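Notes, Module 5: Reading structure tokens.

Key idea: the token line is not a picture. It is a compressed description, and you learn to read it the same way you learned to read a sequence, by spotting repeated patterns. We will look at two proteins. The first is printed below with its tokens.
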Amino acid sequence: MAGFVAVHTGAGNCIDETKYQRVIKEACMRATDILRSGGSAVDACEAAIVRLENCGYTNAGFGSNLCLDGSVQCDAAIMDGSTLNFGACTNVSRVKNPIQLARRICDAQGSPQLLERIPPMILAGTGAERYADEVGCSMVDPSVLISSKAKFQFNHYKSKYDMVVNCRSAKAASEEPVPVPEPGAEVELAAALDTVGAVCVDGAGNTAAGCSSGGILLKVPGRVGQAATYGAGCWATDTDKLAVATCTTGNGEYLMKTLLAREICNGAFSNDCAVTSLHRTFKQKFLDSPLLPRQQDLYAGALTLLYSPGQSSGEVMWSHTTQSFCVGYMGTSQRAPKFVHSLLPTYSVPGRSCVVNGQNFHLRI
């Protein structure tokens, strides 16, 4: 059986890519093993993300960023390009692998419900956790998902946050001038966008896309991110001529406002050149979007797979406006996965420019 998978650990400002290199390769190998055994694109996509959720270095599952109150709340979604079914969960704290819950919700989209009820597409909070327990997902205490890395980052930035809040409160209550610290932490936080995602195509030409995230550090508890939003975090669409799957990462609110994942896939169907299509979408639908702030840096990344069933070939593309983007990919005919640490060109400005790159692949059936 044939297939191809690509994964990412988030677009941001990666200082040490080696901490992601191993887990990216392991995720690719786990997914291709499933494809070789006859598993579907959805099976492989889920398995790859489970590995990324479990590593502790990424902002997904174990290792997720903490909310402003120190709690952990995770988002995840998966989409099946052959059926167009989509499933997502948000604000879950007791599900070990949120992508598995998203998969169960996605699968249930095609199942008839009693009294002709419409099956849920997105579940949140305690209701999502109750459903996860009912369908057999692995449940844990919320503390199990909090890594030492997440604790350290929370304590570091929470102290900066509290200092700014206290200084502003003192300034408001006093007539004397009180110095307020420079808002450098916001820039650092914006660069730490290590959410995860995967795209996959199987030997039947069916695609899948998925994503998982703990959300932005110090987020307001209850916040819903792009990883659980229809059309923003991931998208997959299969046709007889072209199949496209993509997963995004970056400033969640901006990805949701622009529905970037769906725009990327729609653009691919209207342009013969994948590089041109991706660059145009990032420029017109994101960087220059009237929906987004004009005078603010806009951070985003996307991992996109395009497959032509007639030629049994395709392209895997990565695009980002951030300083860097760690991705990996592997086909079932390859002995080892390929790891790429993509960098924004030196003449480009992070948050204002976009780089697009990629690699062709062929499925040997």
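Here is the second protein, with the sequence above and the tokens below, as before.
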Amino acid sequence: MDVTSPPSSLKDNGFSMLSADPLGTSREEMEKLKEELRMWKERVKEAENVKADLLVSELVANKECYETEKRLTELKEQEKQHKDRITTFQLELGLLNQENIELKKEIEKLKEDMEEFKSQKNPLEIKKNVAEMKLKFIHLEEMKDDGADVDMDTHCVFGAATKVPFQLNQNQALLTFEDEEVAQRLTKMSKHCVNLDSTTANVTVESFQLDMGFCFELHVTVSGKKINVSEIPELPIPEDWMRDKLELHFYKTKQAEGGGEIENVTYNKESGTAVITFLKPGASYKFVGHINHCFCTEGRWSILSVSPDLDFHLKKFQAFCRVSKKTILLKGIPEVEENEESVQDMIEIHFQKPTNSGGEIEEIKFTSKREAYVCFEEDTGNATSETKGDS
């Protein structure tokens, strides 16, 4: 069809178009159509609202789904951490159980030690073997009781120091010189050639450090009011009766011219001992020298043992560890045919000679076939000839 050709008729394909004639449509029909149009508009609006609600719901659902997945991931991570902690706790629990078993064993061991400790006669006493020591009287102390012008107790102070043992091994010798400088000079020379008749020995001179010893002051108080009584016979009488009989006996005993008024009597029936305390200070001195006392009770005679009441205290306890400055140690002495005394004499002669840098010797100790313990005095640091034990 050409655009310049006249318009075709509307009757093509069997259709016909009728022109709208407003006058031909009834007013009711128009109102009906308007109402229908308004209804469709409302439906479209409702549909759009529903669509908007669905979009919002979808967004909310997507957000909730994301948060749910995130929360689920967090819960899985927490669960993993929880399982890891449980595993760690189980390992720690195993270690604690093992430690608990060890502690129970240690507790049982401590209980056994405690029972052994309790079974001792004096659980506070610590025993240690030490070398023999001598007590040296220092002085008497003047002390007064509260409210008394004169203290009738006797207070003695003794000094004590352990002898420090030194182990002298086989083929060794100890020499103690009168002069400290001689020992120091020989020690600095170190090597010495000693003539032992048939052989010449190269010996080594060394200084040495002694083991630890200790010294202290022993304060002894002899009571002027108390005496100790032992070997009291066991009789089938009440303890009060025995206490009264002891009090009466020591009040007027003729052996000590009577002790006088008695303040207290402490009687121990199991041990057969008693402590008599007199009222007057100095009364106990009447019993000095009277060790045995005849005692008559219930028609039976017995002998009581009487001794002064002593109180001991340790003071100024000090441990010491020192080097002997006047004594030297000889090592490397060879075995020879001569007897031990001959070898000792030859060593002594060599180190006494000034030409060998020696000097006068106070003590010498040599051992060739055994070990010996030589004791040293704390106050001088010199070796003594006393051997405390051979092995």
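Summary for the second protein:
- The chain is about 35% helix and 30% strand.
- Confidence is low (pLDDT under 50) at residues 8-21, 379-391.
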